[in-house]
Design brief:
The complex is a heterodimer of chains A (440) and B (351).
Chain A (H helix, E strand, L loop, with lengths): L1 H18 L28 E8 L6 H18 L2 E2 L8 E2 L1 E3 L2 E9 L4 H14 L4 E3 L4 H13 L4 E3 L17 E2 L12 H7 L6 E6 L2 H16 L7 E4 L7 H5 L7 E5 L2 H11 L9 E3 L6 H7 L7 E4 L7 H13 L8 H19 L9 H8 L2 E4 L2 E5 L5 E11 L2 E11 L7 H6 L12
Parallel strand pairs in A: 1-5, 1-6, 6-7, 7-8, 9-10, 9-11, 11-12, 12-13
Antiparallel strand pairs in A: 2-3, 4-5, 13-16, 14-15, 15-16, 16-17
Chain B lengths: L8 H8 L3 H23 L2 H28 L6 H18 L4 H23 L5 H20 L1 H4 L12 E2 L2 E2 L3 H24 L1 H11 L1 H6 L4 H27 L9 H14 L6 H19 L3 H15 L3 H17 L17
Antiparallel strand pairs in B: 1-2
The chains are: A alpha/beta (440), B mainly alpha (351).
Chain lengths: 440, 351
């Protein structure tokens, strides 16, 4: 009984984390809570630059956090630091910027916002870090953003958390994000669906929580703008195994289905779909819908499925170098993925900005924050720069399954957080949720 | 020694030890007051805010569990659910709906107490492992409700940006003020729970714990007695929930998941389920362990587990039990010429 209760919980967190996005999530006017003072021992001008690294090394998603830490440490190794040990929680030393030793302190959460917040507090108030890099999940990011507002004297650089509202609405002035958000990950897909695939009537099928809301929002905003219609949105509870009642509620006169379900759920859904009268309906996928297991499981049925996401195996020097270094340094790591590349980019950006200001943080981080804000990077997944809310503008990629492989078919360059739409109008729209956006 | 806090037994103990017990307690009380007053000035900001203040509200939740175990023999796993309910209602009403934070907190506590009453009605007929399972089901249900009922709870991300209100002219967002406020509520909870345990209802609750058949034979309704006891404990847990939301500025389902439920249980056992005060000591130990052991080893959860096992094995009455046992053997060594005392009766919270 307990087992049955725990399993869906884990699935829920799995999806929330792997997607690491959230937009409609809690209302976040920032601040709140009891703020302890930052620990003076880490204060500026003491000859040590302390960087806190926060990811998810506990809980069911430790593997994602391990990848994240690999990525972050690779950036430090690039800059000349040495590892103090081979463990994921081991710090790094040996790097000096502007005459100050750089020290890495590692903390971890279990993917819940509460624990991420407690870990951030430990890093800032106990260890006295000057800069915090993290967290990994979107909902954690919203909590840490609120905390960042209490500590303007500390600089916060994101990990891979991808909730839209961490930076879009009510941002923190000292929070920087060099990776794109869950809505940006859909860039290009909506327009491609209408203009190239000529699907005009699409029903969305997605799990009922924050990350799919962002994904559906990112798909629908341009899709509706290009003349598409979504007559119905189907929200399924997390951990659903029997989709039959949801499938029977899908209207018959549609061109395609947009499916944002995680991993094996997508597999189950498509199998059950093909046993219904909607057999063979074309599918467009979210960023975490189409993975190797799904392609293998679906076989021929997977051919032609189009999806979008921020990480692609590019044919560039940066990507090849990165992939080679990752494999050489961390032999146990998988191929480059969202989490290691994300943390690598964030840490690289931070070290570059620190070097630019020669490690100067005794001015209340003014120079460092200014350097971060105007930084540009050539990352393994393309160029990155920040907008006025310190949010990344970067490439997004479209993929199509061809011969059992997810192949890159289109690059959408310089995707900004408002997907190219007018900023004021975009922000004024309701945040992505079950009912928004809408174009029936 | 430990039993002298218990109603009824306390009188006997005083009779047998007309002068020693009160004096020892006075000394202990003075020490505690001095430490409590000195803590803000001798600890670093991190220890003060993240360990001391955090353990104060965590202990209130644990104390509600200790109360149930000690005086009612009910091991409730629903306490985190109740504290989470109070927290969610407070957070939603104040941060989302813009209600006055004190009103929001008041409604939060009321809703949680009402829920405790309902849960008590459902589960109090069951005893032993069935009671545990029922309260576990309630706890898990509340967790999923928080996770999935998005219109009110905002799902996995929860509610952020809950502000700490002012108490008249005193801003509670200042850690020092919040400390005194939380401390005052802790003392109130402690006194309240002990007073309850000594009241006729509390005595009936203990009688029910020891022998429900006799209570029924006396014409009392065991269910009513247990429901009221459960509701009273729920009130303390929900005040802890409001404090936790103010402390963290946010709440999410992670605040009431199964891990947190187990943490509260660990805090209660570390503190010993004999005296309610133990909850505060247990919470202090637990938060300190979590904060510092993670620096030393990657396997800090295992270390906490080992400490837990060691405490349970060496001193079933928790860490305070270690102190009392040491004090007692010291006393015995010092007074070895005196005749052996018989007051060192076995202390056990269950029976």
């Amino acid at each position: 009984m307990l087992h049955r209760m725990v399993l869906p919980a884990l699935t829920a967190i799995a999806l929330a984390v792997s997607g690491c996005g959230a937009s409609t999530g809690g209302k976040d006017s920032g601040g709140g809570g009891i703020a302890g003072a930052a620990n003076g021992s880490g204060a500026a001008g003491d000859g040590v630059l302390k960087i806190g690294l926060l990811s998810t090394l506990d809980g069911p998603f430790a593997a994602l956090g391990q990848a994240a830490n690999d990525g972050a440490k690779l950036a430090l190794l690039d800059a000349g630091a040495q590892r103090s040990g081979t463990g994921y929680r081991d710090g790094m030393t040996g790097l000096t910027i502007g005459g100050q030793k750089v020290e890495l302190v590692v903390e971890s959460s279990d993917a819940t916002p509460d624990v991420a917040l407690a870990a951030a507090r430990r890093l800032v108030e106990k260890d006295g870090v000057d800069i915090l890099v993290g967290p990994l999940g979107g909902d954690e990011g919203l909590a840490v953003k609120g905390y960042a507002k209490q500590h303007p004297e500390v600089t916060f650089v994101n990990g891979t958390s991808a909730a839209q509202n961490t930076t879009l609405r009510d941002p923190a002035a000292n929070f920087f994000r060099f990776t794109t958000d869950g809505t940006q990950w859909m860039a290009g897909l909506g327009a491609y669906t209408v203009n190239t695939l000529h699907y005009k009537r699409v029903v969305t099928v997605a799990e009922d929580y924050s990350f799919p809301y962002d994904q559906v929002g990112g798909f629908m905003t341009p899709f509706c703008g290009a003349g598409g219609h979504v007559p119905k949105k189907v929200w399924v509870p997390l951990g659903t195994k029997d989709f039959s009642s949801f499938i029977s509620s899908i209207p018959k006169d549609i061109d395609a289905l947009y499916v944002a379900l995680g991993g094996t759920d997508a597999l189950n859904f498509v199998k059950q779909l093909d046993e219904s009268s909607l057999k063979g309906t074309p599918i467009v996928g979210g960023s975490i819908t189409v993975d190797g297991a799904v392609i293998n499981g679906l076989g021929k049925r997977a051919d032609g499925i189009v999806s979008a996401g921020p990480v692609a195996a590019l044919d560039t020097v940066q990507y090849r170098d990165y992939a080679a270094k990752l494999k050489a340094t961390f032999p146990q790591a998988g191929p480059p993925g969202l989490f290691d590349i994300g943390y690598y980019i964030e840490m690289t950006a931070l070290l570059k900005a620190l070097t630019e200001v020669k490690g100067k943080v005794d001015d209340g981080h003014k120079a460092l924050n200014a350097a971060l804000a105007k930084l540009t990077l050539d990352t393994p997944i393309g160029p990155v720069r920040l907008d006025q809310n310190r949010q990344a503008i970067a490439n997004n990629y479209l993929f199509q399954v061809r011969d059992g492989q997810s192949a890159l078919i289109q690059t959408i360059p310089d995707v900004n957080q408002t997907l190219g739409l007018d900023r004021a109008a975009f922000v004024a729209q309701p945040a992505n949720d079950r009912d928004h956006p809408s174009c029936p | 020694m430990a039993s002298d806090m218990t109603a009824g037994r306390g009188d006997q103990a005083t009779l047998r030890r007309p002068w020693r017990a009160p004096r020892a307690r006075t000394v202990a009380a003075v020490i505690v007051v001095v430490i409590a007053a000195a803590i803000p000035y001798v600890t670093s900001s991190f220890v003060f805010v993240q360990i001391v203040i955090q353990s104060l509200w965590m202990a209130m939740v644990a104390a509600s569990l200790v109360f149930l175990v000690r005086f009612a023999g009910m091991v409730s796993l629903a306490q985190t659910g109740l504290y989470g309910t109070a927290g969610y209602v407070t957070a939603n009403l104040s941060a989302i709906r813009g209600l006055n934070p004190w009103a929001a907190a008041g409604i939060g506590v009321l809703v949680a107490v009402a829920l405790a009453f309902v849960v008590g009605m459902i589960s109090s007929r069951a005893r032993g492992v069935y009671f545990i399972m029922l309260t576990l089901a309630v706890g898990v249900f509340l967790y999923y409700f928080a996770l999935q009922y998005r219109p009110f709870t905002f799902g996995f991300s929860g509610i952020n940006g809950v502000r700490v209100p002012d108490l008249g002219p005193v801003p509670l967002s200042d850690p020092l003020n919040f400390y005194w406020f939380t401390l005052a509520l802790s003392v109130a909870a402690l006194v309240g729970l002990y007073t309850f345990s000594r009241s006729p209802l509390g005595l009936a609750l203990q009688a029910d714990r020891d022998c429900p058949e006799r209570v029924e034979a006396l014409g009392m309704s065991t269910t009513a007695v247990r429901v009221i006891g459960f509701t009273a404990a729920g009130a303390v847990a929900s005040v802890g929930g409001v404090l936790s939301v103010w402390f963290n500025g946010q709440i999410s389902p992670g605040s009431l998941d199964i891990t947190r439920t187990v943490n509260i249980l660990v805090v209660a056992v570390l503190g010993g389920v004999i005296r309610l005060e133990g909850a505060w000591l247990g919470a202090l130990l637990f938060t300190a362990l979590t904060a510092y052991v993670s620096n030393i080893t990657n396997y800090y959860n295992s270390v906490i587990g080992l400490v837990y096992i060691a405490v349970v094995l060496v001193s079933p009455n928790g860490v305070p039990g270690l102190f009392t046992a040491t004090a007692r053997s010291l006393q015995r060594a010092l007074l070895s010429s005196a005749p052996p005392r018989t007051t060192a009766r076995p202390v056990n919270g269950e029976k």
